[in-house]
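Fold sample X.
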Amino acid sequence: MTSIYTKNGRPLRRDGDDLYARSGTHVARLRGDQAFDPRGKYVGTLVGDQLIYRSTQSATVSSPFAKSSRVGSAQANRAATAQWGDEPPIPD
């Protein structure tokens, strides 16, 4: 598993194409560089090691998937970025 961060610095764990919140909740799946929630709704674009919501891509949809869970992590936040876009709508 590797770590990525949201625009505001919240940590997410990446396991293959799956993204998990700090609590261990399965919050998104990557399709290329775009992430989609379990219902198939766009939640963000992966830019380096950061997930950033970009409104110009918000109409993009993917197929839904069944959620799984992982053990939570105690990873700390990091500083926010100045990248173009917003904080993705992902629960912590």
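Fold sample Y, listed below.
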Amino acid sequence: MKGFKDRVRARLGVSLAEVGELERYQVATVGVAVVANEAARCSEMLSAAVAMARVTRDAVLADVATEIITLGEGGRSIQGGIESALDEPPDTEEENEPDTERDES
């Protein structure tokens, strides 16, 4: 299995890890993660990883499940979007200081 994982990482540049029941040596569940600016590119890379798994001599591919999570342009589905966080003015030093009263006696 290590050879397969190394080949996929080297050829596709994806993140790959063995997940699931790690104590069962006869069965391996492999998770592949891809980040791209287009869902179609993610799908293409995941399909390439599946194709490599289908022809590997190390194992038999039994099942495939794919999920693509889109975050919208600029990550807008992340609590208002990444750009909105960048548009906010930075905090000033005065605002970051704790409110404490000084006793001048």
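Sample Y note: The longest helix spans residues 39-55.
Also: The chain has one domain: 2-87.
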